[in-house]
Amino acid sequence: MTTPQHTDIAVIGGGPAGLQAALTAGRVRRQVTLFDDGTYRNATVSHMHNVLTHDGTPPADFRAAARRELTAYDTVSVRDERVATVERDGEGFRLTLASGAVMTSYAVVLATGVRDELPPVPGLQDVWGDLAAQCPFCHGFEFAGRRIGILGAGAAPHLSALLGPVAGELVVFDEGQELPEGSVLDVPRVSARVSVVEPHDDGLRLTLDDGSAQDVAVLFVVPTLHQSAPFAEQLGLDLNPSGCVRVDEFGRTSVPGVTAGGDLAHLAVFPTPMASVVQAAAAGQIAGNSAIAQTLTRG
Ligand SMILES: Cc1cc2nc3c(=O)[nH]c(=O)nc-3n(C[C@H](O)[C@H](O)[C@H](O)COP(=O)(O)OP(=O)(O)OC[C@H]3O[C@@H](n4cnc5c(N)ncnc54)[C@H](O)[C@@H]3O)c2cc1C
């Protein structure tokens, strides 16, 4: 039997959180191995926004630049491979890759992100990240002054309050649902269900189940979040009600030696992850720091 390869810190995830965690740990000469299976949350986004010094940069260019920077560090190795399992192995961890290869580490940084489940409206997935999105900070400004749609009643009060000063006109497609109790919405509502979404002119046409159609420049949607990877479950990590991994202020999970940063995790005080590239990178830095602390406490 061959001895598994060893690394000080295994970072799983090559989005902004994992890339930053690897940079942080690599700079203090911890041996870091970063795994990336190439499934990024913002894969369909052509230009990201609200990212200082990178406002409007394609996400792929951002990741490529980060990877180029990591090549300056002989302490960091990046592997385009999927990790299949993570388990405790004595004081450390044992990672099994999809290829069957095995690696051990003293600490693990989880930066595997989340997967968006969209409402089951035909055509929505095709325009996701372009003419349909979830975040007014990332996606609103480019549609300023135009007619903006919001799909679903649950988040309509919150989203319409944020988008009010951006939109020329707002419309809520409430799908026949009630607003959250006690909320007020001073925005026109359409209750017929949306049966198809498709690009039309430089925006979207929504065909409704009463046969009518509505045109908007962009549609805001609230996706359901799912963990992209099975590691929270495999390691038995505590979760928040959102389904995301619960971390403390230091990015530590409920299992010593496992830290987490980015969209897959958040503090218990937040209802959901503060999903943004900058927040993910910041959380990755904290998770990287705390992973180093794990290597320091070894005898
Ligand atoms: C439509 C849309 C538009 C957005 N626009 C913006 C924007 O304009 N500005 C902004 O700041 N934010 C934007 N965001 C949010 C932003 O994309 C996320 O907050 C950010 O990507 C989270 O980074 P992350 O590192 O946590 O996860 P991700 O970027 O999703 O990276 C996850 C990483 O984990 C890897 N991974 C997962 N499982 C495994 C495994 N088993 N083995 C190996 N690797 C694995 C993936 O391959 C990937 O490398 C947008 C999000 C969406 C959905």
Structure, explained:
With 299 residues, the chain is α/β, with parallel strands linked by helices. The chain folds into two domains: 5-115 and 223-296, FAD/NAD(P)-binding domain (3-Layer(bba) Sandwich), CATH 3.50.50; 119-220, FAD/NAD(P)-binding domain. 22% of the residues lie in helices and 29% in strands. The protein is built from seven helices and 19 strands. It has helices spanning 16-27, 59-70, 124-127, 136-139, 156-163, 231-235, 277-296; strands at 5-12, 32-35, 76-79, 83-89, 92-97, 102-110, 114-117, 132-133, 147-151, 169-173, 189-190, 194-200, 203-208, 213-216, 218-220, 224-227, 245-246, 258-260, 265-266. Strands 1, 2, 3, 4, 5, 6 and 18 form a seven-stranded mixed beta sheet that branches. A five-stranded parallel beta sheet has the order 8-15-9-10-11. Strand 13 (203-208) and strand 14 (213-216) form a beta hairpin. Helix 1 (16-27) runs parallel beside helix 2. The longest helix has 20 residues, at 277-296. The chain is elongated, with a radius of gyration of 21 Å. The mean pLDDT is 96. It binds flavin-adenine dinucleotide.
> What is the general shape?
elongated
Q: For the record, what CATH class of the largest domain applies?
A: Alpha Beta
How much helical structure, as a percent, in the residues?
10-25%
Query: For this structure, what is the CATH homologous superfamily of the largest domain?
Result: FAD/NAD(P)-binding domain
The domain count comes to 2
Structural class computed from helices and strand pairing: alpha/beta
Q: Which cofactor or ligand species appear? A: flavin-adenine dinucleotide
How many helical stretches?
7
The percent range for strand residues is 25-35%
- CATH structural architecture of the largest domain: 3-Layer(bba) Sandwich
Main beta sheet, described?
7 strands, mixed
Evaluate the radius of gyration.
21 Å
